[in-house]
What we know:
The chain is of the alpha+beta class. It has 7 helices and 10 strands.
Amino acid sequence: MRVVYRGLAVAAAVAAVVAVAVVVVLPSEPDEVVAGPVTAPPAAPTSSGSAPSAGASPSTPPEISTTPAAASSSAPRSTPTPGASLAPGYTAMEALYADPRVPRLTRGVKRLPLRSSGGRSVKDPRTGLAVPKLPRPWKSYGAAPFTTKQVLPKPRGTSTRGMFVTCPLPIMEQESPRDTALLAARWTLNHHPKGSRITWLASQPVERGWMLLYRVTYGKRTSRAAVVVADGGTSKPGLAFVTVPDSQRKQWRDISRVASGVRVLG
């Protein structure tokens, strides 16, 4: 019996040694997770339910997550808002051409015979321009927010009246003086009744700039208007803008006087 007990004791000791060896050699599961790449997504289990082998490469992320730029570039740009100087995602000229109130300026638009206006002038050092001082019934008026301002008396029953102003260019200057004048004409619709639309009447270069003559239609009424954009040697080109409603059509002749009489001071 003593021999039997000794055999059992030896067998128990051997079993204990084997158990310790297993505990030491086999790594625990948490250590495997920490040792893996932290940026790799978790692998999906196989159909048999077994875990992936240690040497398996991480699964490829879904395609949509790897190409966000392609999705954003295909999104359509918003339509320019009429009256806005620049719509999101558009250049100034693209916004101009998308504005239904302003037609394309074609080559068929005529030129206006420009003659020396003579008479007195108003000098505007902020724009570097000198402009005609228009005769009565025009009169000088508080200039703000412009730098010079001349107006006609208000007709009865309406607040729309003739106005002639100068100011530094209020919109983005373009490489072409013609394009700059087009943007300036669009900007002047802010100073006409709501719903106004432009029809081009004349277009031509002037001294260091460009001149546009146009008709503005709003409902059953119209105005004649002109813009002259010229480089007067200041930080921004100067703008001269005149508009006269049909209720004061006798002064439409003064619009050509303005177009002919704007000159640079330098």
